[in-house]
Amino acid sequence: MNILLYSPDNEITNNFMPHLWMFLLRSLTPPGHQVFLVDGNAQRLSASDLAHYVERNRIGLVGIGAMTRMIRKAYLMADAVRAVGVPVVMGGPHVTEVPDEPLGRDGEPRHADAIALGEADYTWPRIVADAERGALQEIYAPVDEAGREVKPSLANYPEIPWDRMDLDQFNLVGRFPKWARRILSVAGMTWRSFHLVPIESGRGCPYGCEFCTVTGFFGDSIRFRSNASVVDELLKLKQLEKRQKGKIAVFFIDDNFAINPRRTKSLLRDIIARNAQVPWVAQISMNLLRDEELVSLIAESGGKVIFMGLESIDPENLKTVRKGFNKPEEYKAILECLERYGIYAITSFIFGMDGDSPGVAQRTLDVVRTWPPGFPVFGLLTPYPGTPLYSKLAAAGRLTRPKHWLEFRPFTMDFSPLGISPEQAEEEVRQAWDSSYKPATNAAAIAKLESRPFADRIIHLLGRLAFRGIYFPQMTRREWTRVLFQNRSSILRVILEALRFKHQPRSTEPLSIEVPEAAEPSA
Ligand code: B12
Ligand code: SF4
Hints:
alpha/beta; Rossmann fold
């Protein structure tokens, strides 16, 4: 049977990294089937394009996975596929959280023939077998014969053959503007391709922050792959990199990559010992980064950027969303420690919490300005279905758009916070983005990196221009031209530096990481 796995785009911005679930389910598909992958972020298809694709390739089953944010598009595409008579199975966090919705059991139209609840590693082969004999069930739940939930072990993680796959649709170099490619090549980065590849090393986070779906979805049982299986995957990527004469970076998509610091350190040591370093990004909660030995191993093993959910600079606010383990008084020291090791942070903030009041953006920006340059990102507190936050607000009758995802509006409040109006909270987010990524702030950030290797400044500038696109979508050539023009002085500065760099004898590798002596763990 021909199977298509499809991941929708969110209709506004583009993801730049393939979704792991598609590659994982392909690896878990029993032999004898051909699996096609289409990512809407890389190939924007309309509903009728997808229906034609399905007919042309004689697809017998379509699997669609989506987060809440993309579910509207997912339903639209599913409807088009079902209209040409091909069954659709949907999976992922959203349908797990509101299973009645895709099955049309809540008064809305039906969009899926079947749904896979939760982690589908063990149920997928069964779904494929049932679809092949035309006997799809409506719901596939990860339970044993006694009805007890079964969490997939990651001990026998399947091989994902990245090295044998065509990843061309995700080549980011192709999307860089010409000027950026020129500057990169002057700095020795003459890559033909650049791919950000998702790898998971473990699943689960027990912290249970009020707004987060992860603890509910993956459970608080934390599971890990073996070090050897992760390191083998990295080595395979390095071989691919060499063959393609390109560059590969890895996003460890674990919710909290250092949730078990001892295990993370052991993995990082194995990466170093087997020379499997590639530049990597991961999500790690701030409390775990007090440990300088961990930070030092992150740097030595290739870690470049850490995403941290700081959420707020107000400890009381953090307590209201059950994230009191974040200690705002530690933020600066930890970020400075990361900077000493050449690691930069994506610091994520949420506005619209019950403790927020007007002026929250300015208060946050004043603090961020005292930190090493990084990439702050801002969002509004969003009640995702299945979270404790959603239940709390629903019970209190505070949801203004209980099914906000069916009519998705980016950066719009879906409930009324206690200390700030929804409109004011939305304005605070706008102001925070505007101020953090305006040309003067970008120039100041690059100037602050004066003592860092040249490559840090280039990557930081490109990162800043791209990050800006999360809030101010930069999808057309015209929008890009405007952004480049506005940031012309920073760009010119980097170009001049690149030219100087080109004519200077090079004493160090452009992408080398400066790792200070490891200190004793501080926590
Ligand atoms: C990586 C990631 C991203 C990447 C996405 C790009 C990418 N290419 O992966 C980035 C960083 C861009 C991102 C952004 C966002 N993300 Co995100 N992200 C993740 C993260 C950390 C990992 C996803 C992953 O690969 N997991 C590992 C795979 C194996 O798990 P999985 O996808 O769930 O798939 C399994 C099952 O769900 C199922 N399955 C999934 N799809 C399908 C389909 C079929 C047919 C079947 C049968 C089964 C099936 O089988 C898989 C194997 O068991 C998750 C958290 C998490 N641990 O999952 C959050 C998560 C998915 N993100 C979340 C959110 C909220 C966002 C943002 C909205 C945040 C924001 N405010 O901007 C944005 C939206 C992005 C957008 N496009 O608009 C939420 C989603 C909640 C929800 N109900 O939708 C999650 C769960 C995190 C959280 N804190 O709650 N994210
Ligand atoms: S620490 Fe992060 S992944 Fe874990 S529950 Fe909190 S927000 Fe979710």
